[in-house]
Amino acid sequence: MKLYRRLIVPFGLLLVFGLAGCNSNETVTNVGKLEFQQALKIPELLEPTIESDGTKHFSLTMEPGTTEFFPGEITDTWGINGSYLGPTIRVSRGDKVSFDVVNKLGETSTLHWHGMMLPPAMDGGPHQMIEAGETWSPHWTIDQPSATTWYHPHLHGKTAQHVYRGLAGMFIIDDEDSKKLPSNYGVDDIPLIVQDKLFTSDGQLSEDDDTPYGMLGDEILVNGTYDPFLKVTASQVRFRLLNGSNARAYNFGFTDGRSFQLVANDAGLLNEPVTLERFMLSPGERAEIVVAFEPEEETILRSYSSGAGITNGEFDLLKIVADSELTGSSPISKQLSSIEPIEVPADAKVRQFKLTMENEINDKLMDMYRIDEVVPAGTKEIWEIHNFGSEHNFHIHDAAFRVLDINDKEPPEYARGRKDTVFIPHGASVRIAVEFGNYTDLNYPLMYHCHLLKHEDEGMMGQFLLVEPGTESQAPTELRDDGVEHPHNGH
Question: Quick one: pLDDT band at residue 12, thresholds 50, 70, 90?
Answer without folding.
Answer: very low
